[in-house]
Specification:
With about 130 residues, this protein is mostly helical. The chain has 5 helices and no strands. α3 (about 55-85) packs antiparallel against α4 (about 90-120).
Length: about 130
């Protein structure tokens, strides 16, 4: 999956969360979960875009960590919606599947990047190891 495709996919995820949030009960529990899900789901795409603008592989890797956390948090809220009986599983299952897939993609990406980072010398350590 290309960077652009992932940018669009994470945006679509956020857009598909909107109707689900509107379907949640208007009670205190529903509104608290709606707020948390809105925050985390919208953050997935926003942070992925920020990661793509990273100035280095290390910064990209680090920012992808935030994307992973937010996607996993979104998954948590979606699971709570079903397990708490706020909405039926069939109304939430596609978003649960998408959040799970986004988490898996980001985890795989971070693993790939970390292998590259391990072989890239750290500029700071090269300076520290120089002898005058």
């Amino acid at each position: 999956m290309t960077e652009i495709e992932m940018i669009h996919r994470t945006k679509r995820f956020a857009l598909h969360v909107f109707p689900l949030i509107e379907a949640l009960p208007r009670n205190r529990t529903g509104q608290i979960i709606a707020h948390q899900l809105r925050r985390s789901a919208l953050s997935v795409g926003a942070n992925y875009r920020a990661a793509c603008r990273g100035r280095s592989k290390a910064e990209f890797y680090s920012k992808l960590g935030v994307v992973e956390e937010e996607a996993d948090e979104s998954l948590y809220w979606l699971e709570l919606i079903v397990e708490g009986g706020l909405l039926s599983k069939n109304k939430v299952e596609l978003l649960i599947k998408e959040a799970s897939e986004i988490v898996a993609i980001i985890v795989a990406s971070r693993k790939t990047i970390s292998r590259g980072l391990a072989t890239t010398p750290n500029r700071k350590s090269q300076i520290a190891n120089r002898k005058s």
